[in-house]
Amino acid sequence: MEKFNEYHHAYICGYLYDELKKAFGEQGKLAFIKATQFYGEQRGGRMALRAIRDGRDLSYDSYFHYVEWRATPGLAEIERTVTDGVMLSENFVCPWHTALKEMGLSECGAVYCRHIDASLVRGFNPELKFEAETILHTSNSCKLKFYIGKPIEAFEKGDAPIVYDMEYHCAHLLWTFAEVIENIFGKDGNIVVINVKERFAEKYSKEMIDALEMYRDCNFTYLPDGDIKAIE
What is the pTM (predicted TM-score) of this model? Predict the structure, then answer.
């Protein structure tokens, strides 16, 4: 089976947006935004739970320490600078931008990226200040501002202690969105989810969808038992 990466995540995201818009119009777009917020807040919330468990505070030090995500090398081009306690993370090449543009769904990228990082930060600690100044889908780069309040040199060195593979993150995306969509739209929402899975299987493979099916009953709000599937 092909290994999951950020492009698979982006394609699932794009299919969800496209099917929701086709089925429900502006209501579908609103459902997509709400699902994105739930999804981001859940991941940010897991990061916070892990930080609290380990006796750490909920500052940006801890936020970046518990990111759960290690970017696939070569798929993104990011520069970070700090000025007056504000870290600017500027992204010039992004796999979500690349994939969604390829799908003809840059509109999806503009909506998703306008909400996802803010939702992650809010889920971790709503008292932290964050701003998405520009988005790559509608500008020359993503400019994300994290109000860290101290030089970047003060951040703890080393990789995050728990990083999940992209299979887990793709499953989290699919099933959290499915739960929101089906809760809002009932059986009609279930048809959207079925269509998304069929399109993904056609683009990639049924085997990859079968792998995601294994997570259908996972509660992504909380830490998995023993932080299973963590990358060593």
Answer: 0.93
